[in-house]
């Protein structure tokens, strides 16, 4: 089923994001995480895209297996990193042949060791080119999602330019967008207001990542409200206390977002189930999640 249909039902969607494991150990961890989160019956799950050959294969493999074995709708991420048009066409054919109907079309981050993104010969420089390519080649065969940046793309100096880039990307064929993580809901609401003001009508799903590690959260580039930063610093050396704070803050974020009518919530799980499960359970107990 196309995610845009799920989003048109008038109930918020709840989705989880995973990344392809790089080692045997992390593959086991992911298996367990998926089975623990599967019981929560998410609207869909998404799997990020490894730029390297083997992790690229794993993305397709994991989305295919999730959909086949759990019946949960799955979305494959696809990036332009290190790939020609032909490479991307082959991956898309493989995704389509596996029965996957949803793709998150992204430019992707520069490969490790490179400071700026460079397209390979015969590849794409921007997500908008990838979106156009998928639409030309498959028409409406895929439901397409994209990324949005409430605090602007880190490489873009001007938030107005960034917003117009998003508008063009949506006009090229995106059905919905998911935001980069944020810790301050005001950033999301102001962003949505600006987007609607310039004529963007597509659903904008907030991306939420519970803080589970202080120094990691500080590296993500999203603004941490001062009171949260202070509390985080106080608990820095107590992992359990950091997790509790992260879960409490993310739960409060989700409640406010849902109260104000967001189309859904996308959890960045970092392939671990504990924090997401605790938030989800709290939302369920408070009556925000209804599976009937």
Structure, explained:
With 292 residues, the chain is α/β, with parallel strands linked by helices. It has a single domain (3-211, 264-272), classed as TIM Barrel (Alpha-Beta Barrel), CATH 3.20.20. Helices cover 47% and strands 15% of the residues. It is built from eleven helices and eight strands. Strands 1-2-3-4-5-6-7-8 form an eight-stranded parallel β-barrel, surrounded by four helices. Helix 6 links the parallel strand 5 (143-148) and strand 6 (176-181). Helix 9 runs antiparallel to helix 10 and helix 10 (239-259) crosses helix 11 (274-285). It is globular, with a radius of gyration of 18 Å. It starts with a helix and ends in a 7-residue tail after the last helix. The model has no long low-confidence stretch (mean pLDDT 94).
The poorly predicted ranges are none
β-sheet strand percentage: 15-25%
Rg (C-alpha, Å): 18 Å
Instruction: Give the overall average pLDDT.
Output: 94
The largest sheet is: 8 strands, parallel, barrel
**Second rung of CATH, namely the architecture:** Alpha-Beta Barrel
End-to-end separation in angstroms reads 18 Å
CATH topology: TIM Barrel
**Helix fraction by DSSP (H/I, runs of at least 4):** 40-55%
Which series of helices and strands comes N to C? HEHEHEHEHEHEHEHHHEH
> Any idea what the shape is?
globular
Provide the structure class: alpha/beta
Count of individual domains: 1
Helix count? Answer: 11
CATH structural class: Alpha Beta
């Amino acid at each position: 089923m196309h995610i845009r249909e799920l989003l048109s039902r008038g109930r918020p969607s709840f989705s989880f994001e995973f990344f392809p494991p790089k080692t045997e150990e992390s593959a086991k961890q992911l298996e367990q995480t998926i089975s623990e989160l599967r019981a929560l019956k998410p609207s869909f799950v998404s799997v990020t895209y490894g730029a390297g050959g083997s992790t690229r294969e794993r993305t397709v493999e994991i989305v295919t297996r999730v959909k086949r074995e759990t019946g949960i709708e799955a979305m494959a991420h696809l990036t332009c990193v290190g790939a020609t048009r032909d490479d991307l066409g082959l991956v898309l054919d493989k995704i389509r042949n596996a029965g996957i109907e949803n793709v998150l079309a992204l430019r992707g981050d520069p490969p490790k060791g490179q400071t700026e993104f460079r397209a390979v010969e015969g590849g794409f420089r921007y997500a908008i080119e990838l979106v156009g390519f998928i639409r030309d080649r498959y028409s409406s065969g895929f439901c397409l999602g994209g990324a949005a940046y409430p605090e602007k793309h880190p490489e873009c100096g001007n938030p107005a330019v960034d917003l117009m880039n998003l508008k063009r990307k949506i006009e090229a064929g995106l059905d919905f967008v998911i935001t980069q993580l944020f810790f301050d809901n005001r950033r999301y609401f102001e962003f949505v207001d600006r987007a609607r003001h310039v004529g963007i009508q597509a659903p904008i799903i907030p991306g939420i990542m519970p803080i589970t590690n202080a120094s990691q959260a500080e590296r993500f580039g999203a603004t941490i409200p001062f009171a949260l930063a202070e509390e985080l610093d106080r608990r820095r050396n107590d992992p359990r206390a950091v997790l509790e704070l992260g879960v409490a803050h993310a739960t409060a974020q989700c409640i406010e977002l849902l109260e104000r009518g967001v189309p859904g919530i996308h959890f960045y799980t970092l392939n671990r189930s504990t924090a997401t499960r605790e938030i989800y359970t709290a939302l369920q107990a408070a009556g925000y999640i209804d599976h009937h």
